[in-house]
Write a structure and sequence with these properties.
157 residues, mainly alpha, two-stranded antiparallel sheet, 6 helices, 4 strands
Length: 157
């Protein structure tokens, strides 16, 4: 009721969804008979948003490590093998992900950056005035993605 248009605090409910919706889209295209479940995609999206939050200097390293480890061991988290099976080849995966990310409802139409819900601590979100989303450049997303995919997920990029 306080934020029916998700222009403020309600945006935090979309934590992890920016990447998740792109993953779901790819999964439905690549593996329509057995795509990623919504919760699995959200889990991966949350893990990446935690990584991005740390990489951009918003989330302290200790909080990053705790959150990353908790998400890694969550029962709804797909394994690296499951993720790749649902998404098909990693060839051109980042390109496909960016196509889906640019379709996210939080985006403003800018082609150099996309809007993300990011953390600055446990239960604390990065806030710019009344907004709870932060623009992140494609270059920053790519840098974090390459590290995340190879180190955290063990996916080739």
């Amino acid at each position: 009721a306080l934020d029916p248009n998700e222009a403020g605090i309600r945006a935090v409910l979309n934590f992890g969804h920016t990447l998740a919706h792109a993953l779901e889209k790819i999964s439905h295209e690549e593996h329509p008979g057995d795509p990623l479940l919504h919760g699995e995609a959200i889990a991966l999206g949350m893990r990446f948003a935690v990584q991005l939050s740390r990489d951009l200097g918003h989330l302290p390293e200790a909080d990053f490590l705790t959150l990353r480890d908790q998400l890694r061991t969550a029962s709804f988290m797909p394994s690296a093998e499951e993720g790749l099976r649902h998404l098909g080849t990693t060839q051109r995966l980042f390109e496909k992900l960016m196509g889906g990310i640019f379709q996210d409802k939080k985006n403003t139409g800018d082609t150099d950056s996309t809007e993300w819900v990011l953390l600055k601590g446990f239960g604390e979100f990065v806030q710019k005035g009344e907004r709870y989303t932060t623009p992140v450049s494609v270059a920053s997303i790519k840098k974090s993605w390459d590290s995340f995919a190879t180190q955290d997920l063990s996916w080739p990029v």
